[in-house]
Design brief:
Blueprint: E1 4-7, H1 8-11, E2 12-16, H2 25-28, E3 33-36, E4 45-46, E5 51-53, H3 55-59, E6 64-66, E7 71-76, E8 78-85, E9 89-91, E10 95-100, H4 107-116, H5 118-123, H6 135-139, E11 142-145, H7 148-187, E12 199-201, E13 206-211, E14 224-227, E15 244-246, H8 250-256, E16 257-258, E17 263-266, E18 268-269, E19 277-279, E20 286-288, E21 292-297, H9 303-310, H10 313-322, E22 324-326, E23 329-331, H11 334-338, E24 341-343, H12 347-386, H13 393-398
Parallel strand pairs: 3-9, 4-8, 14-20
Antiparallel strand pairs: 1-11, 2-10, 3-5, 6-9, 7-8, 7-10, 12-24, 13-21, 14-15, 16-20, 17-19, 17-21, 18-23, 22-23
Helix pairs in contact: 4-12, 7-12
The structure holds a DNA duplex (20 and 20 nucleotides).
Length: 399
DNA sequence: CGCAGTACTAGATTAAACCA
DNA sequence: TGGTTTAATCTAGTACTGCG
């Protein structure tokens, strides 16, 4: 039996909102009507917003009030994000509200369907500086409409698959937390130093520091991949997606290559991100850019320990307070980095910590691979479900 | 004349280049 | 090396324009 298709415009009312004048405080001050912006759309359900507008603002602008249960769909700048309203709220013109009016369509079903065609919709976007799609594109989308029972099956299946993805992410998150708690357990609170380790500065455990190369990197040409600030994550990992390349002659290679066991430190960035620190754990050396500092520890320290220290809550707070914030950019130079006070536990204990970390990282790697599979599975289920490959009317009636 | 559509403006943030 | 300036990018918000 062929699945019936209907236009989204036939099964739902679709309209977008508009922003009340920001210059009129009467529209915004002390408002109690939730105001949804694109950045509020994060998960499947939208529970709360950052801003609110007033009754007056709602009535004197093209802002519209959408009821709980409305599907929100972003149509401007960031296209194709989608969520189900779990509260009554108003939106701006970047977000369309889709109100299902046919009882033959389940809200969640439509939600998953819209997610499954995101790429197609995004590609229809037009615009000079920013892309946008208009409401008629939305209204023209063909929606496959199987029986409610089939819709329910699809919803359940995708919910389950999505749940697995979420759980896996939570496990990875937990492992990252574990790194922190292992550090605290082994060495104690860095501020109180309950185990009375000798105290010194980072300088005492540093063999040398070196700024990276100021050569311009190229998109694809060059002997070495080059690490830039974006490659260090806030959590202290290296992200090798989005690499550029560079050539170094032999005399520069020594200075501007980072080797396994070295520490990388981001000296310039916005105040929050200054001091991002990660251990370089790869076998093959890479180049690194001038706004990163390479720190090679001496015999007293293992870079995993220093990284654990700087990535601890204490370390993050300290770095934040140290960053000199001038015209939006903040700095911590190599000298300041080396002046940071740090407790110095025995080297063998630090090495033990490093080997635990390496175990955790292995497990993390496995989980990441698993996560990738789960996500692929989720996406492929989504695609197949709406092509009618998973459930047909006959199959359901036989079950 | 109201409203949808979209070009334009602007702010926040991040990344990279520059210069003493 | 170190710090400041500039560029790029991403996203939110405003305000015309033209159509029904």
């Amino acid at each position: 039996m062929a699945v019936i298709y209907k236009k989204l415009g036939e099964i739902a009312d679709i309209s977008s909102g508009g922003t009340p004048k920001r210059t009129n405080p009467a529209y915004w001050k002390n408002g109690n009507i939730p105001w949804v912006k694109i950045s509020d759309i994060k998960g499947k359900y939208l529970e709360k917003t950052e801003e609110f507008i007033t009754e007056e603002g709602l009535n004197n602008s093209s802002a519209k009030l959408f009821k709980k249960g409305t599907l929100l769909y972003t149509i401007f700048a960031t296209i194709g994000e989608c969520a189900i309203l779990n509260i009554d709220a108003s939106t701006n013109q970047a977000i369309a509200g889709i109100n299902v009016k046919s009882e033959k369509v389940l809200n969640e079903y439509l939600y998953y369907f819209l997610k499954s065609i995101k790429n197609t919709v995004v590609n229809t976007g037009r615009g000079v500086a920013q892309n946008n799609i208009n409401l008629s594109i939305l209204k023209n989308i063909d929606v496959p409409l199987p029986e409610i029972e089939v819709q329910n099956r699809i919803i359940n299946l995708l919910n389950k698959s999505n749940e697995l993805v979420k759980k896996c992410k939570a496990q990875i998150e937990a492992l990252d937390q574990l790194t922190q708690s292992v550090f605290l357990e082994m060495f104690g609170d860095p501020y109180k130093n309950p185990k009375n380790w000798p105290v010194g500065t980072i300088k005492d455990i540093t063999l040398k520091t070196q700024y990276g190369t100021s050569k311009k990197a190229s998109e694809n040409k060059g002997k070495y991949p080059i690490l830039r600030m974006g490659n260090i994550t806030y959590n202290g990992f290296l992200d090798f997606n989005d690499m550029k390349y560079i050539d170094l002659d032999d005399s520069e290679a020594e200075k501007y290559l980072v080797h396994k066991g070295d520490l990388l430190f981001n000296r310039t960035n916005s105040k929050e991100l200054v001091g991002k620190t990660a251990v370089y754990r790869e076998e093959l050396p890479m180049a690194y850019a001038g706004y990163l500092v390479k720190l090679v520890p001496n015999e007293k320290a293992n870079s995993e320990f220093i990284s654990g220290f700087l990535n601890s809550k204490y370390g993050k707070t300290l770095l934040y307070s140290m960053a000199k914030n001038i015209v939006g950019m903040a700095n911590i130079n190599a000298e300041e980095l080396k002046r940071i006070k740090i407790y110095i536990p025995p080297r063998d204990l630090q090495d033990k910590f490093a080997s635990i970390i390496s175990n955790i990282l292995e497990r993390r790697e496995l989980l990441n691979k698993g996560l990738k599979l789960l996500e692929e599975n989720y996406n492929s289920l989504m695609q197949r479900a709406f092509k009618g490959e998973l459930f047909t009317e006959e199959k359901v009636s036989n079950l």
